[in-house]
Each structure stands twice: as C-alpha cells, then as structure tokens.
Amino acid sequence: MIVDPKGKLVKVNEDGLAKIDGIPMFKIIERDNLFYVEFCDHDRMRSRCRGSRLVEIPLEILVEKVTMSMTTTKIKDENDPATSPTKPEELVK
Question: Model-level pTM?
C-alpha cells in the first residue's frame, strides 16, 4: 500500500485532468462558476442507458457525500486504537 499524506502523487494538468501516481482518474471542469468531476464509465450498458460514457458530478456534492460517509461510518485503521478491530486476547480479559 502506498500512503501519500501530502498528495505528492496527485497531479492536475492545465486542462483539469487529475492523475494519481500517473494514472488518469478524472477531469475537473468549470461551468457556470461551478466545478464538476468528470470521469468515464466503462460499463457499456449503463453508458448506453445514460447516453454518454462521461459522467459529471458537481465537486461540491462529491465532497459533501464523501465527508458525510466518513463521519457516519468511520474507516477502520488497524494502527488507530479507537478504530482497530478488537484483538482476540482482549476478548478474554
């Protein structure tokens, strides 16, 4: 696992294309003073139903949903005693 706490692996080109460790992930688009995250859906059936392979989500909504998700279901970190799974020896005590 690669941990990048300072975001050194994240690059955003002048055209808004965001790459993580060199892998194109999404594109940031500004329209009507709002920022959108655009990505390509490779599922042909969903793309056909939608009428486009490209999906745009307002960046503000994406951040809101991720933040809300993180506060309601805290991600387990084995190095954090508050969220690490209980060890079997602790169950015996």
Answer: 0.63
